[in-house]
C-alpha cells in the first residue's frame, strides 16, 4: 500500500506489538478523580451508552488551524448512532480545553472559538490530544500545557499529538528516547531542537503505547482511527471510517489499520468500478489482471492504464490490500488458523499472507491476532 496526504509524502506507520488499551478508561465517572458533576465531558449519543465514558481532552489555542481540532472533535465528539450494539466498552466523551477557558480564540480563517474547559481538566483526561502549537518555528509552547501534559502522563493518561503538537510533547519530555513523527516540514527542526527524540519523518504515525504522534492534517484521521481500533476493535473503527468516507486505499506503503475500512465501490458504474466490486466478491479466487480486465470489459493494457489513473496504484497491489483488509476481522476472531485465513482471503499460503501482511502492516498475523483478537488484553 502507498499513501499520500495533502502535506506531502509520508511512509509506513509504526505501531506497538501489543494492543495498548486506553489508560484510565474508567476516569471521569461520577465520584472519581476524572470529573465532577459540573465538568462532565460531552457525551456521544449512541443509544444506551454504558457509563463511565472515556474522557478525551483536546487542546485549543489562539491562531490554530481548525482542521486538526475538527478531526478530533468529529471522531470523538460526534453522535454515532451507527455504533449502537457494537460496543463492548464505553465510548468517549470530549472536552475542548484551553489555557484560559471562556476566552475567544482567533482561528485561522477569520473566526473565533471558545473552549469551555481549562488545563486542569485536560490534565485529568484519559486521552489528551495536542493538535498543534502556535508557532513551531518560533519555539512557542505554553508552560501551562507542558505542565498539564506531564501531570496527565504521570497519572497514566494516553498522550497524542497531531502535526506540530509533537513539539509540545517533546517540550514536556514525553518523547525523550522514543520514536516520534510530525509534519515532514517540521521534522528536521524537531530533531534539532530535541536531539534525544528519534524523529522519523516518513511515517503517518508512531504508537509508543502511552504516547502517540502523527504527521500533519490528514494523518490525524489515521491516528484517531487507530486509537479507536486499539480501544474498540476493527469493526467499530471501520464503521467510523466509513462514516468519515475515508478512501479505501492510501498510497505510500503505509502500515495503517485504517486500510481495513474498505468502502464499497458503489457510487460509480464505470468498468474499473465494476471490476473492483467483482473482485471484492471474489477475493478467495485466483485474481489476475486478465480476469479483472474481463470484469471491466476492457483489454488488459487499457484496464491497467485506467485502474492506475483512477486509484493511484496497480490492480494487484490493490487486491493484496483488500485481502489483508479482509483478513483482519478473521484474525480478530478466535476461529481459524493462519493457514485457513490465508486461503479464505485468497493468498496461496500462510507464508504468502505473512509476507504481504508484514510488508503492509509492519507486524505479523499472529502478533496482530494477539493484540486485537477477542479477549486480547
Structural account:
The protein has about 375 residues and is of the alpha/beta class. Helix content is about 40%, strand content about 10%. It has 14 helices and 13 strands. Strands 3-5-4-8-9-13-12 form a seven-stranded mixed β-sheet, sandwiched between helices. Strands 1-2 form a two-stranded antiparallel ribbon. The longest helix is centred in the last third of the chain and has 18 residues, at about 315-330. The radius of gyration is 21 Å and the shape is elongated. Mean pLDDT is about 80; it is low at about 1-10, about 15-50 and about 245-265.
SSE blueprint:
Blueprint: E1 4-5, E2 8-9, E3 42-43, E4 54-59, H1 66-77, E5 92-97, E6 104-107, E7 111-114, H2 119-123, E8 127-130, H3 143-154, E9 158-162, H4 166-171, E10 179-180, H5 184-193, E11 198-199, E12 205-207, E13 211-214, H6 218-232, H7 234-244, H8 271-281, H9 289-296, H10 300-311, H11 315-332, H12 338-344, H13 350-361, H14 365-372
Parallel strand pairs: 4-5, 4-8, 8-9, 9-13, 10-11
Antiparallel strand pairs: 1-2, 3-5, 6-7, 12-13
Helix pairs in contact: 1-6, 6-7, 8-9, 9-10, 12-13
Shape: elongated
Q: Strand fraction band?
A: 5-15%
User: How many helices?
Assistant: 14
Overall average residue pLDDT: 81
Largest sheet: 7 strands, mixed
List SSEs in N-to-C order. EEEEHEEEHEHEHEHEEEHHHHHHHHH
Strands in their spatial order, largest beta sheet:
3-5-4-8-9-13-12
State Rg. 21 Å
